[in-house]
Amino acid sequence: xxxxxxxxxxxxxxxxxxxxxxxxxxxxxxxxxxxxxxxxxxxxxxxxxxxxxxxxxxxxxxxxxxxxxxxxxxxxxxxxxxxxxxxxxxxxxxxxxxxxxxxxxxxxxxxxxxxxxxxxxxxxxxxxxxxxxxxxxxxxxxxxxxxxxxxxxxxxxxxxxxxxxxxxxxxxxxxxxxxxxxxxxxxxxxxxxxxxxxxxxxxxxxxxxxxxxxxxxxxxxxxxxxx
Length: 227
What we know:
This protein is of the alpha/beta class. It has one domain (4-223): TIM Barrel, CATH 3.20.20.10. It has 9 helices and 8 strands. The chain has helices at 4-21, 40-48, 59-68, 87-93, 103-112, 142-150, 170-188, 205-210, 220-223; strands spanning 30-34, 53-56, 75-78, 96-100, 120-125, 155-161, 196-198, 215-218. Strands 7-6-5-4-3-2-1-8 form an 8-stranded parallel sheet. The chain is globular, with a radius of gyration of 17 Å. Belongs to the pyridoxal phosphate-binding protein YggS/PROSC family. GO terms for molecular function: pyridoxal phosphate binding.
């Protein structure tokens, strides 16, 4: 039976192979461990194996784990849908939000970011395949929201995030990732703070890295199937 540390080595090798194939630096992709539904002990094991970035989808669950692991130097990423009545604890406890898709949420996060802490790093979520079941802005809405975010003192615009339609074939998936990269490049040309393209999960990280991803969000390949 493989351990979490063994799984991290395997995933790290996959990332290294993918960056090499794409002629990119080995350190150009951050491994974000998606720890939703997993206990604090599993996160601690991944931390002991060298990981520092962890992603959570569910606020109540995340709050408990953040409290339990407060002695560790973890960078916490919120990667789930965010309702306006849940923004305060996210603004207070997390360093990143990957799922920003509304002006109202942006303004609340900025206003509720504690004084004296660095701005909250945010990625705008793009509904790149126009799926009714998923959150995110349309490609045409990226620029207007980015303008708003860049002007808010409590936020730092870092880039874009997507969750592509998993039913696509390999060619369509690669095309989807390349499309988001084009929007990312356009955003980079306008905002100096933009450096992050959050795309790719356990089953498609290689295609995402080939298309320029800088953060891959990996859950099952590290921690096993969801509980």
